[in-house]
Amino acid sequence: MLPPDYWQTLRLTLALASCTTALLLLLGLPLAYALAHGRSRLKPLLEAVVSLPLVLPPTVIGFYLLLAFSDSTAVGQFLINNLGLSLNFTFSGILAGSLVYSLPFMVQPLQAGFKQVPHSLTEAAYTLGKSRLTTLWRVLLPNMKPALLNGAVLTFAHTLGEFGVVLMIGGSLPGRTRVASIAIYDEVQSLHYDQANAYAFTLLAVAFVILVALYWFTKRDAARLS
Amino acid sequence: MIDFHLTKALHTTAGPRTLDVALTLAPGELVALSGPSGAGKTTLLRLLAGLSKPDSGFLTFDGQPWYDRARRQWLPPQQRPLGFVFQEYALFPNMTVRQNLAFAAESQPDARRIVDELLELLELIELAERRPAVLSGGQQQRVALARALARRPRLLLLDEPLSALDLPTRLRLQDALAEVHGQFKLTTILISHDPAEIARLADRVVELDLGQVRRVGPPVAPAAPATVVGRVLAALPGGRLRVQLPGGAAVEVSGMAGVGEEIALTVDVARTL
């Protein structure tokens, strides 16, 4: 038997993962390019910041974001009064949290992808009169498709499994911030093991299918380009 | 006409040096750059292309300043009408041969015709729909040359385009280069280590060493093939012969001859380099 909020929760979970993936693709590309080819002395600092979510407990990220979004801090007051963004316990809030939490899962594959494309391809495009943007769009990105796919899939799957950050800044409001991983926790707390299992098995199946698709496509693409 | 005096710090195996080269090329001239590795040949080519920035000096092409330290001018590579052929080809793996050329030609008004003509000139028509990964080194370098020409450049820069190829392929590509040069009369700078290749293609040769010009002048024709007569000592398995040379030393060669016979051996100095 499916839990009463099953579809609503699943829709919210997939919406959060999709939005996070799409936004991180846009934000991650320039960041990954800068990390792959930048020569700034501040690069190690930037790299450390990007990788922090890998090693920090999600509750730490969630705690500081909770503070940053609340009206008791200067940042929060700026967000609320100047931008009209009241982020705590909203979908936008958990989306912002997911962007931080999943950042390394997007940036690191893209950074590796940019590094693996020979620099001579970029230079060849320049000597053919192509702008940086044309070179990125027509030469670099098509030659790092596995990295793009890898970043997108890992980000998506990782966001599906997010728990601590969402719980800290989103709580568990059905239809607004209660994603599948939190629903599992709630159901177990109420001793509804069947309903917890419905969510848990769905996440397990989705994650498995996504990863199989990723590795299958990566293998096929590698065979095609080599 | 191209006129320049450029300097740039070099990091050679012999320690830090300064690349310092001044040169003027006549329109349509083909100049070969030669010299040991670390001499600064590739660096010079990259400075001319705008892929690296010089430390000081100037560079003018047909009266247009491409770089002038004193006036703080620097034209990015995209705006220099040149074709660059990389030693490692640098073809776009995601595009077919035709797409590689079309990508280069797309800013030209008659792009389609340019691509078709270049495919034909460099004998690439049958390979046009293939991707670079399935082509041999020689085929890839023909594509790279065609692609460099597709933009209708006025200066052609070739960074050791033939050095990674075997001898027969190299000779065929020399033919292709000679034909391209005859047809387009492009001012060309070619990095090469092969005296035969330089003698065949270049009007002038510039020898660099440790960043400095050692010699500028006409190419030196490579020594004529030397012929010696040797006596066959023994026939070895696999069609090999042991031959005694006049000096007394013995060498092994491939061939057929009876023991005790005298045979002529030709040593092609240029091609063994």
Report what the structure shows.
The complex is a heterodimer of chains A (226) and B (273). Chain A has 226 residues and is mainly alpha-helical. Chain A has one domain (6-225): MetI-like fold. Chain A has 11 helices and no strands. Chain A has helices at residues 6-37, 43-55, 58-69, 74-82, 91-116, 119-127, 132-140, 145-160, 164-170, 180-189, 193-225. Chain B folds into 2 domains: 2-217, 3-Layer(aba) Sandwich (Rossmann fold); 226-272. Chains A and B meet through helix 6 of A and strand 7 and helix 4 of B.
Please tally the β strands of chain A and state the result. Answer: 0
If interface size is counted as residues with C-beta under 8 Å from the partner's C-beta, which chains form the largest one? A-B, 18 and 27 residues
- The second-level CATH architecture of chain A is Orthogonal Bundle
Q: How would you characterize the largest beta sheet of chain B?
A: 6 strands, mixed
How far apart the termini of chain A lie comes to: 49 Å
Strand content of chain A: under 5%
Instruction: Give the CA-based shape of chain B.
Output: globular
Number of domains of chain B: 2
Name of the CATH superfamily of chain A: MetI-like
| Mean pLDDT rating of chain A | 91
Name the poorly predicted regions of chain B: none
Instruction: Tell the overall outline of chain A.
Output: globular
- H-E order of chain B: EEEHEEEEHHHEHEHEEEEEEH
| Uncertain residue ranges of chain A | none
CATH architecture of the largest domain in chain B: 3-Layer(aba) Sandwich
What structural category characterises the helix and strand content of chain A?
mainly alpha
The CATH topology name of the largest domain in chain B reads: Rossmann fold
User: What would the average pLDDT of chain B be, to the nearest integer?
Assistant: 90
The H-level CATH homologous superfamily of the largest domain in chain B, spelled out, is P-loop containing nucleotide triphosphate hydrolases
Into which percentage range does the β-strand content of chain B fall? 25-35%
Oligomer: heterodimer
